[in-house]
Amino acid sequence: MIRSPALPAIAPAQRSDARAFATYLIEHVAESGRRGVPHFAVATSLSPDEVEQSARDRWRKALDEPLWGRAWLLWSSEPRARVIGHIELRGGRVRSESHRAVVAMGILGPHTGQGHGRRLLETAIAWARDEAGLSYLDLGVFSNNERARRLYAGVGFVPIGTREDAFRVDGAILDDIQMTLALRSPDPRAVAPAGR
User: Fold this and answer.
1) Which of 47, 72, 138, 144 is the most buried (most CB within 10 A)?
2) Quick count: other Cβ atoms within 10 Å of Cβ 156?
3) Going by CATH, does the domain composed of 9-184 fall within 3.40.630.30?
4) What are the domain boundaries of the chain?
5) Residue (of 72, 85, 76, 80) closest to 14 by Cα position
């Protein structure tokens, strides 16, 4: 009997996972713009200690605090347990935007194209809508990253604008497409009065 490998597990990130997350993220960022992969990161190198500490700081914050973060990690068990992907929701800088979060996600190259991105998105979207009570999720995606754009559109994100020449990385000029996903209808009581 041939046994198919188990799907990589998706688990909420714990602060104790911050080092494994940092190790993964550094490997992931190194893939951006290399060997035919489109640019997807603005950083070309990261400090493991800074990534780890920043993640721990975001993940410990309550949802009503500015700059909170909640992440889900994609864990492979073969050949050893390690993080091979992630999705993170990050709260805004001020409390008045606490009804929204920004999405950041990625998967190591050898594990892309297998449906893990959709699984990660569906996990985060369900949590944002059903547990956190958020109204919107926002993200930015480089215009050259067709695969990611199709994935985001496939789960309901819609483009709302483009920042042309938003980033310059390794000599590449990158346009940033802003996309948003409405999780619920706006509360009519929260709409500003006419004339404002």
Assistant:
1) 72
2) 14
3) yes
4) 9-184
5) 72
- What tokens were used for 130? 């059903």
Tally Cβ neighbours within 10 Å of residue 35: 6
Helix, strand, coil % in the chain, rounded to nearest 5 = 30, 30, 40
Whether pTM exceeds 0.85: yes
Question: Residue 39 corresponds to which amino acid?
Answer: H
pLDDT in tens, 6-53: 789 999 999 999 999 999 999 999 998 888 788 888 877 789 999 999
The residue count for the chain: 196
The Cα 76–Cα 20 span in angstroms is: 12
H, E, C per residue of 97-160: HCCEEEEEEEECHHHCCCCHHHHHHHHHHHHHHHHCCCCEEEEEEECCCHHHHHHHHHCCCEEE
